[in-house]
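ok so i was messing around last nite and threw this chain in just to see what happens. nothing serious, just curious
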Amino acid sequence: MSIRCALLLILLVLLTQFIPLRAQYMGVSTRPTEVYAGGTITVMFNIVKSYPGSPESKNKLLGFQVRFILPNEWNATSKEIWGYDVKGNSLYGRGVWVDNRTAKVNRGDEIIEAWVSIIARVPAWEAEGQKSITVLINATIQYPNGTIKEVRAVSTGYVYVKEFSPFVYLNLDRYYVIPPQIVQGNLTIAVMNPLPAINLDNVSVKISYQGKNILEKFFYEIARAEIPFQLRIPADAPAGDYSLDVSISFFADGKQKEIHISRNVSVRKPANISLEIISLTDRITPWENASVTMKISNPSAFTAKNVQVHIEENGILNTFRIGDMPSGYAENRKISFRVERSTSISIWASWTDEGESTPKRTEKIQRSISVGYPYYIYILVALVVIGGVIYAKRAVKHKTKAG
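result:
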């Protein structure tokens, strides 16, 4: 029955004679209360004369008919009619199934408690969310004054449906790749517990990398599939993070569904800069610049970007830009810099790998530089001082003789 027909039927019930059952307690429940689409549930309607702690109805339920209204395109199978009358007799003999959604308990002795249940199957394509199940009741009630009437009522229960989606596992033997490289991958598609046992029909699988298909597969029917594949990263592949995308299309219960998943593949081109000090002026005069000659090279297989040499002295940092250095490149470079006083210096190089922004650096090289005058200056000063002393002594001696 379609949703429109079900709503129309409920509306007709509400617009016609609608008399509460008056202290007859009834309800609709499901077991389980949550189910995956494609699975089954037991839907139960229960009506009793009274519950413990509640007043007992003075009305008598002599018979009834119930019809289960399920969501659109849900299938139903009749299950059981159970209960007993005021004399303790079972309702098995009085209960009959009109169809797989409609049950009738024929008129007879007063019914104390009754259960009617069906098995409902949820279509595999059903959307996730809470679904309502309505039961229409047409009951024969005898009132205390002996009057017997047909009474209509409605009761509703709920079940939460979880989306049916097969388990999909996309595994790679590595997610960090240095080109050239072949990445081994495996895609698993499986319908397994706790999912209901449903075969997937007309399954189409596509795996793409950077917008290009690397694998396409088609299966007429599967419950489980293992799909190995290879991802080739060429030597000239640019560094960066890229998406490996999987699209799976299949039919379940006659309707199409799609699944999309992805994994990140990081292509890295790690460079390496080598810095070697060839010569360094370890002593300079106050009016001279210090200088260092170094060999800087890139022995790696990849280009080092934005290479710089750094010299730090007493918290003052001097940076000298070298630029990009391709694989295998080497050069000797002389750098001059100003030093005010004797000190220790640190020298290192930095660079960034292709496609990255965080700099890398070499180990720091520590050296000392002293600042002072040439030795001959000190000798000259000493000679001047000595000459002055001798001159002073002679002057004193000459003055003494003259006196």
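not much to say yet. Residues 6-20 have pLDDT under 50 and may be disordered.
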